[in-house]
Amino acid sequence: MPSVRLKYFDAKGRAEPVRFMFALDGVDYEDIRYSQEEFAKVKATMPFGQVPVLEVDDITVPHSKAIYTFVAAQHGFLPADNLGRAHVDVVIETISDTDFDSTKWFFEQEELMKHLKDVTFPKMKENLEKILSENNGGLFGDKLSLADVITFSMLHDGLAMFTGKEPGSCSLSDYPLLEGFVARFKALPKIATYLEKRPNTPY
Amino acid sequence: MPSVRLKYFDAKGRAEPVRFMFALDGVDYEDIRYSQEEFAKVKATMPFGQVPVLEVDDITVPHSKAIYTFVAAQHGFLPADNLGRAHVDVVIETISDTDFDSTKWFFEQEELMKHLKDVTFPKMKENLEKILSENNGGLFGDKLSLADVITFSMLHDGLAMFTGKEPGSCSLSDYPLLEGFVARFKALPKIATYLEKRPNTPY
């Protein structure tokens, strides 16, 4: 069995989609969580001075999206055909469209929370709802994919973080397909178990 | 032969890496370029109200990065193995690390040009130089990949745009491996031909 280490802060953030995939596939891994002080000491040992970093035996993968795709491919959450893969990428990029405003939020919090709430996230939810409506209520086919993992991570944890709420407490009642999607994903036994046991961090 | 249409503004921007791949593989395609006025009229017909959009026969792919991966996979610029793919993703994300500051630049140009020039781009160039130094002067193996296309696009056109210069005129003399990379890619006959013939747009 390969030795797997995930290095990140003591936070959900950009590592959580990887943890969801490991939970779904029953992967045994070392979940290394640095405090800000600890990270300052190890920063220079990271490939680009950043986390998350994934280590599988002697392979090191930096950069969250590179890690997502690699883990998804290794553990059966990435379609093998080019068109299926493009479909998953479209879902990921629909969520990444919020990165700019979300990142600004960290620096100019008050002013931007309103913009995220009124403009950025509604547009994202509307686009994801459109994707679900065009795919019989799924993001892509019948099989779980990276698209599901990333979407749940944003809707359950991301929306809550940016609006100062508890994970999973943001209403999706205006988006019935998304609401159903989140409920179904959350009820997957391996995800339910993981959510129950994961450390309670604000990000 | 499939019918291929690339829809974007009359600009290099997020469509140019796709055009580079089409040039390299000799793809015959319709290069649809909207003025701002024309785009306002067709915006509602785009999947998410945005361009670029790629249409291949009856397949529609929105979102630049989904298009990059799809085109790279279809035309032989994406490694088939998971680790090779992760390596290409790392290069792409090293460049995407500049997206936040680059996007802000469009809104707060003067203040940010200095930050991009002094902080954001040097960090990216340093990280790309590191990747090249660890791979015998290549970004990934001996075969051209999406990593090469995205990197050339940023170093040749992106850096120039954000610093108000002509494409290809930004000095890379502090980064000898990057300088050599750009010179080699630019000298590829199909790229040289494409660069000579492409419309002269500021972005």
TrEMBL record, chains A, B:
InterPro entries according to UniProt: Glutathione-S-Trfase_C-like, Glutathione-S-Trfase_C_sf, Glutathione_S-Trfase, Glutathione_S-Trfase_N, GST_C, GST_superfamily, Thioredoxin-like_sf
Residue ranges occupied by any GST C-terminal domain in the UniProt entry: 81-203
GO molecular function ontology, one term from the record: glutathione transferase activity
Domain GST N-terminal: 2-79
Superkingdom assignment: Eukaryota
Matching Pfam families: GST_C_3, GST_N
GO biological process: glutathione metabolic process
CDD domains, per the entry: GST_C_Sigma_like, GST_N_Sigma_like
Protein name: Putative S-crystallin SL11-like
